[in-house]
Amino acid sequence: MSSAVAAGDATRLRSATHALKGSSANLGLPALAAGCRELQQLSETGDISTAASLLTRLSEVFADTKHQLETAAFRNSGI
């Protein structure tokens, strides 16, 4: 996604956000899916000039989600 934003490639950004949105929704990760939905909707306009700030926010949501999943996995591992 970051390379698509850097290149100004709205089509590639739409494709990437659509894929991650679906995966996030299927895994029950609503905050991540919502951030992807927002970026996907922006990319569908063709003007992704404000996408960098949304991508930064999505990256933060991703990092937080990853941390939560890792913590839950560790707690459930019995280690």
Structure in words:
The mean pLDDT is 94. By secondary structure, this protein is mainly α. It has helices spanning 2-7, 10-26, 30-45, 51-77. The radius of gyration is 14 Å and the shape is elongated. The chain is built from four helices and no strands.
The helical percent reads: over 70%
Instruction: Note the run of SSEs as H and E.
Output: HHHH
Oligomer description: single chain
In this structure, how is the largest beta sheet organized? none
The overall pLDDT, averaged over residues, is: 94
Q: Which consecutive residue ranges, at least 5 long each, have pLDDT under 50?
A: none
Distance between the termini: 35 Å
Shape: elongated
Kindly estimate the percentage of residues that lie in beta strands according to DSSP: under 5%
Query: What is the number of helices?
Result: 4
Structural class: mainly alpha
Features:
79 residues, mainly alpha, 4 helices, 84% helix
Concise account of the structure shown:
The protein has 79 residues and is mainly alpha-helical. It has four helices and no strands.
SSE arrangement:
Elements: H1 2-7, H2 10-26, H3 30-45, H4 51-77
